[in-house]
Design a protein that fits this description.
Blueprint (H helix, E strand, L loop, with lengths): L49 H7 L8 E6 L5 H12 L5 E5 L4 H8 L10 E4 L3 H11 L3 E5 L16 H18 L2 E6 L12 H5 L2 E6 L6 E9 L7 E7 L2 E4 L3 H5 L9 E8 L2 E13 L7 E4 L3 H14 L7 E7 L11 H13 L7 E3 L2 E2 L5 E2 L4 H10 L4 E5 L7 E4 L2 H6 L3
Parallel strand pairs: 1-5, 1-6, 2-3, 2-4, 4-5, 12-13, 14-17, 17-18
Antiparallel strand pairs: 6-7, 7-8, 8-9, 10-11, 11-13, 15-16
Helix pairs in contact: 4-5, 8-9
Length: 419
């Protein structure tokens, strides 16, 4: 039970131990010696999508349960439908839909070009039926869309309640371990962006993935926040096409394809997990019509933008007290790492002065309240990626040394040397 929370009282049956001698369980299974347990990385199930495999740590582990969450309409069902088709070329797959009928899923699948349909399908909201097929169907992978629509006859409460979601997830986890069947379950999210339901559900599963991005943006990001069988700092880049969600091997090139050399445009080298990605940061500065200047940010934290504008005015000598400032991260990408501070400041300074920043330069660095530019992590990886794409100059923290790199100690130095 949880205070100030609706429907948080969960019934837990009490086992009657009076019939057992001394109240002790009789062992039914002999423990294994740990060094004798056999496992091979080759047993992972390839998804057919290199980006998804990378985020999972090399593929789906047999007997694991993967929770995929994301905003409505972001592409979760499309992604798992593609995975069902690709994996079914070599493995036995069951797709369970609790949200759509067979005809509706068939209609949705018809919009995906060249989708392989050699997998089994079942439309049901009965988790007990799913469990019976798990134990008797000899499947390699079962997809459940979604866990919030599933219910069990043995439990009270409607589908989606705390007791139903918790117990049904636990039942699927046990079935996955007992039969060595991999599961992918889709989870709804709240308006705050968290998985709907009890936090316990995320503890029960082996892997938690989030599909992120603007609904109509160019790229979608598949991010791992929990992975018992791989790293959690990997991010997969996907693009929605007529073939469905496809892997993007070079997202930087796609994001910079239509860039124009104008004031207010800066190339920032960010890190998504361990992958460097080049993104265009745009700024627009215009006189304020009203007495209170506006600050608008798309893809960047608005409070952070207000702070950086104050630092620019106090430490950088740029008067923005009567100017509206608009900042946009191109491609629907959302960035929050401190390394983007310097790129935001130089984009605003460029838009305010009308000076074009060298189109062959990249920018990154964290900015402090006193106007100093601090070093950031993985600087060498960032610069290597920029050089690979033809950028031979950089405005970076002074602690980074290199040919054609301008190291700035303060934002005043960086603003004076926009070129």
């Amino acid at each position: 039970m949880q205070c100030d929370a609706w429907d948080s009282l969960v019934e837990n049956p009490v086992l009657n131990t009076s019939s057992r001698k001394g109240g002790v369980y009789a062992p039914s299974k002999k423990p294994d010696k740990f060094h004798e347990i056999e496992y091979s990385e080759n047993s992972r199930i390839g998804t057919g999508n290199s980006e998804v495999d990378s985020v999972l740590g090399g593929g789906i582990v047999p007997g694991s349960l993967v929770l995929l969450a994301g905003d409505p309409g972001i592409g979760k069902s499309t992604l798992v439908l593609q995975l069902a088709g690709d994996i079914s070329k070599n493995k036995k797959v069951l797709y369970v839909s609790g949200e759509e009928s067979a005809a509706q899923v068939k209609l949705r699948g018809g919009r995906i070009k060249d989708l392989n349909t050699d997998f089994e399908f079942m439309a049901t909201t009965d988790v007990d039926e799913v469990l019976s097929h798990t134990h008797g169907g000899n499947y390699d992978l079962i997809i459940v869309d979604s866990i919030q629509t599933m219910s069990s006859q043995s439990l009270s409460g409607a589908a989606g309640t705390t007791s139903q979601v918790t117990n049904n997830t636990n039942s699927l986890v046990r079935a996955a371990k007992d039969t060595n069947t991999a599961f992918i379950i889709i989870g709804h999210v709240t308006k705050e962006g968290n998985v709907a339901g009890p936090r316990l559900m995320e503890h029960l599963v082996d892997t938690v993935l989030y599909l992120e991005g603007e609904r109509y943006g160019l790229l979608k990001m598949l991010r791992s926040v929990k992975n018992r069988f791989g790293a959690t700092n990997e991010v997969g880049m996907l693009e929605m096409t007529e073939m469905g969600l496809k892997a993007v091997s070079n997202p930087s090139e796609a994001l910079l394809m239509e860039r124009q050399e104008l004031p207010g445009s800066v190339i920032f080298v960010g890190m998504e997990g361990t992958r460097p990605i080049l993104v265009e940061v745009q700024a627009l500065v215009s006189p304020s019509v009203f007495g209170y200047p506006k600050r608008v940010a798309d893809g960047f934290d608005l409070n952070r933008l207000g702070l950086l504008c104050a630092v620019m005015q106090k430490r950088g000598g740029v008067n923005l007290s009567t100017q509206d400032v608009y900042v946009n991260i191109v491609g629907g990408i959302k960035l929050a790492e401190p390394a983007i501070d310097l790129a935001i400041i130089l984009a605003i300074a460029s838009a305010s002065s009308g000076k074009i920043i060298n189109p062959g330069a990249v920018v990154f660095g964290e900015v402090g309240l006193s106007g100093e530019i601090r070093s950031v992590n993985m600087s060498n990886l960032r610069l290597q990626e920029a050089k690979k794409l033809g950028f031979n100059k950089a405005i970076v923290p002074a602690s980074i040394k290199g040919i054609n790199y301008y190291g700035a100690k303060t934002i005043a130095d960086a603003i004076k040397n926009l070129k």
